[in-house]
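Sequence, please.
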């Protein structure tokens, strides 16, 4: 058996077999550590990829919920564009009654103008909410970003299902027509700068193929 030792100190050294055992142990430990780090990096990257997707899904859920509250209203028309959507909806909230006895009334049902639109300068989808009084006074209402890093938001409007289950398309609705379905396509960049797309087909209970 070969033994490696130091002639200067006279101390006994390690055998070749012992060195091979140590090298093997270090290799196994290094592989395990590398595997753990790699798995952690993959989980981290997956989390970054899913973060904006979750935000996009929350936006689509919000849009769906608000469209389910849509109601025809003569003073607030349904306005649908390729990257914007405004419509009247019945909501609950604090309502301000102007006058000499001005005060807020909590949890009041009221008609509001809800809007979702794409701001190309900010690369974001914007949500706007205005009360009937704010609409009449041409006030801006409440505006906030609901999704960032957006490359595009495209809206498609459909009046009904045809008999062969294909959708008949109306791309723009400026005449107050309330569609039966809206398809929303959002292209965005996740936190790893990867381009992703989410799509949702929203059914509108109040949708008709006529103008109100």
């Amino acid at each position: 058996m070969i033994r490696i030792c130091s002639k200067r100190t006279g101390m006994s050294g390690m055998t070749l077999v012992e060195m091979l055992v140590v090298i093997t142990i270090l290799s196994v430990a290094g592989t395990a550590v590398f595997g753990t780090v790699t798995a952690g990096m993959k989980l981290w990257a997956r989390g970054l990829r899913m973060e904006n997707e979750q935000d996009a899904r929350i936006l689509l859920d919000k849009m769906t919920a608000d469209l389910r509250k849509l109601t025809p209203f003569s003073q607030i028309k349904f306005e649908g564009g390729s990257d914007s959507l405004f419509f009247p909806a019945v909501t609950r909230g604090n309502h301000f009654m102007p006058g000499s006895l001005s005060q807020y009334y909590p949890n009041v049902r009221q008609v509001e103008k809800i809007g979702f639109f794409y701001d190309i300068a900010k690369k974001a989808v914007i949500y706007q909410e205005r009360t009937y009084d704010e609409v009449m006074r041409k006030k801006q209402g409440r505006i906030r970003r609901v999704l960032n890093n957006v490359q595009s938001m495209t809206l498609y409007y459909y009046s009904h299902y045809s008999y062969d289950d294909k959708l008949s398309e109306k791309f723009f609705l400026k005449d107050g027509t309330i569609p039966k379905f809206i398809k929303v396509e959002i292209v965005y960049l996740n936190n790893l700068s990867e381009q992703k797309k989410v799509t949702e087909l929203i059914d509108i209970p109040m949708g008709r193929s006529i103008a109100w």
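The CA atoms of residues 54 and 60 lie 10 Å apart.
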